[in-house]
Amino acid sequence: MPANEQFELTLPAPPLSGEAPLIPARMVNEFVYCPRLAYLMWTQGEWSETGGDTVEGRGAPMRTSTSPARPCRRRKRSKPRITADKIVSRSLTLSSTALGVIAKLDVAEAEDGVVTPIDYKRGKRPHVAQGAYEPERIQVCLQGLLLEEHGYHVEEGVIYHYESHERVQVVLDDALRAAARTAVSDLRLTVSQGRIPPPLKDSPKCPRCALVAVCLPDEVRALTGSSLAPRLIAVPADEALPLVVQSQHARIGKEGETLKITDDEQGETRVRFIDISDVALFGNVSITTPALSALFEREIPVIFHSHSGWFRGIAHGLGHRNVEVRTAQYRMSFDEASCLRFARDLVAAKIMNQRTILRRNWRGEPEERQAVLDRLRAARRSAGNAARSAELLGLEGDAAATYFRAFSGLLKQPDTEGELAPFRFESRNRRPPTDPVNAMLSLAYAMLARHLTIAVASVGLDPYRGFYHAPRYGRPALALDLMEPFRPIIADSVVLSAINTGEVGPNDFVVATTGTALTQAGPPPLRGGVRAPPVAGNDPPDLRLSGQHAPDAFGAGPPALAVSAGGAAELSPLLAALRREFGRIV
Ligand code: SF4
Questions:
Q1: What are phi and psi of 267, to 5 degrees?
Q2: 202 C-alpha vs ligand 1 centroid, how far in Å?
Q3: Is 231 in the pocket of ligand 1 (CB under 6 A)?
């Protein structure tokens, strides 16, 4: 036995009680396929809309995240032949407390006193020894056992494959019945122990698994000493974007698979649910109960702001119900060594990304560039070895100072008379920012923080409890932790690109003694240059929200950035660019 493995003592599953939840037969199927997959789905409530191998049909083509909304042609089912002696029942739900199982049978056929469960699967019939894979055979066997529990006589089950229109007979012999009962017992034992099973080892199932991005099998194995390099994971891009509605007296309702926004001046706008990541409402905008219900069902949050942009609250569906994730997060957040280890990686990654941005965008003298790159490389190494949080904070601050001292070298050289004159950068400033470059940086960081706050909450973590940023009332510390490595390569990169390509011009800003703000019209090239999310209305508020949420300004003091009227309209394209970058990286 390898030195790092332990003997496992096999225990019987806890006795069935009336309180124990019945296990769906399809979950037993998942358990036989991979115990970890069943645990993630059944105990932790994880599910991926991106498809992959599932109980619906292993080997079937992967669905994409948009596929559920596309109109699809209904494939003709080959209906079982019905004779005078045959009774066919569809969508029959059966359960048994003795078995501890519940199942929804696609079809049950009764003929000559014998009942046969038929389970429909996508895809073609696999060419394997017993005509079907073990998990599917066990699932249909459990359906047969349930029928028997209800007094029917069952001899075999059938698996019907949509794509090849083939029926595979599964004889319910003693060996299969015993395997099905053992699988149920093992799943119940695994769940009762509250310990997630280890991932499969270098399995060909994993790249096709629907939950590979949640499970991270190779990465988990690597952390426990495996010498195999983690395989690449293909994560589909998330194309959904925020929907910002700021037209006063606009009304939002549901119409089919779309939200319908009605505005007296602009008429009607329809936006598909699958194109929406979250809905931001400003001021006097009303939304109907069916629309809210449809959004919550799809786990799309709705964020309410005052007319002037102050954050009022957020409404969302049931959210992630996996308390295990939050428990582990809180436990780790009280462990100083774990926090430091995590923070070291975050800061090292941030410095590495700052270095990458400098390397790629430098426009100054080569010798100067090399000196800055060397300093950042040294800072990154030191951050990786920091012994205390305070030391890490100091190293991060020094690296940021080095980076922003060189930041002007990334901007096109200003022409005093020309378009680029306002885009001088001398140092990072905030609360409020005093020049256009700092205003755009603060805005981009604020958007990133908001995006990560929503993302963190949507996977069941508490955004307010972090590992590096200290907890402070109202501060989403975990979102701020996680955004550190992304600041340079998403926020700074978008700002540099907007300036250097001329997407923003001097007329897009108002500079006053109290700070710098985007103008009402905003930068037209930004609006047209990126695929903006749907924005309804043109009576925009003062978007102080961004200042409230800016990581620089959490807690106290004036907003980091006061975007003047028109702000929200300009935020959306910038956020769209941020989101696209973010999606590509993650
Ligand atoms: S990725 Fe592999 S180990 Fe993880 S749940 Fe899926 S099949 Fe199991």
A1: 80, -145
A2: 10
A3: no
Whether residue 244 has its Cβ less than 6 Å from ligand 1: no
Atom of ligand 1 minimally distant from the CA of 200: 3
- Counting DSSP H helices and E strands in the chain, the numbers are 18, 17
CA angle 162–165–166, rounded 5-degree value = 110
Query: Span 551-566, mean pLDDT?
Result: 26
Q: What percent of the chain has pLDDT over 90?
A: 32
**Residue 215 CB less than 6 A away from ligand 1:** yes
- Closest residue CA from atom 2 of ligand 1: 206
What is the SS3 assignment for 413? coil
Complex ipTM value? 0.99
Give residue 35 CA to ligand 1 midpoint distance, Å. Answer: 8
Q: What are the tokens at 496?
A: 């540099």
Half-sphere exposure of 432 (CA within 13 A, CB side): 25
Residue nearest to atom 3 of ligand 1 (CA): 199
| Closest ligand 1 atom number to CA of residue 210 | 6
Q: For residue 582, report the distance from its CA to the centre of ligand 1, in Å.
A: 25
Please check whether residue 445 is in contact with residue 550, taking contact to mean a CB–CB distance below 8 angstroms.
Answer: yes
Asked if residue 35 has its Cβ within 6 Å of ligand 1, the reply is no
Question: How long, in residues, is the chain?
Answer: 586
Q: Is the peptide bond before 432 cis (omega within 30 degrees of 0)?
A: yes
Helix axes 366-384 and 336-361, enclosed angle (nearest 10): 170
| Ligand 1 pocket test, candidate residues 39, 200, 224, most atoms within 8 A of CB | 200
Residue-by-residue DSSP string for 313-339: EEE-SS----HHHHHHHHHHHT-HHHH
Peptide bond into 573 cis (omega under 30): no
CA of 42 to the centre of ligand 1 (A): 14
| DSSP alpha helix (H) spans, 206-272 | 212-215, 217-223
Structure tokens, 109: 């056929």
In the reported structure, the alpha carbon of residue 134 is separated from the centroid of ligand 1 by a whole-number distance in angstroms of 17
pLDDT tens sequence across 94-110:
999 899 999 999 999 99
Fill in the amino acid letter for 298.
Answer: R
Instruction: Please give the distance, rounded to the nearest whole angstrom, from the Cα atom of residue 45 to the centre of ligand 1.
Output: 15
The tokens describing 260, both together, are 């319908």
Supply the DSSP symbol for 468: S
Domains plus CATH for the chain? Answer: 1-35+52-62+82-192 (3.40.1350), 241-315 (3.100.10.20)
Q: Which residues pair with 102 in a beta bridge?
A: 24, 95
Average pLDDT, the chain: 76
CA distances from 247 to 265, 281, 286 (A): 9, 9, 10
How far is CA 268 from each of CA 23, 475, 537, 540, rounded to the nearest angstrom? 46, 37, 11, 18
Contact 528, 295 (CB under 8 A): no
Q: Is 203 in the pocket of ligand 1 (CB under 6 A)?
A: yes
Q: Is the pLDDT of residue 577 over 70?
A: no
Ligand 1 atom 7: residue of nearest CA: 206
Q: How far apart are the first and last CA of the chain?
A: 38
pLDDT (tens digit, 9 = 90+) per residue, 199-211?
Answer: 998 899 998 888 8
Question: 475: closest CA among 414, 553, 570, 374?
Answer: 553
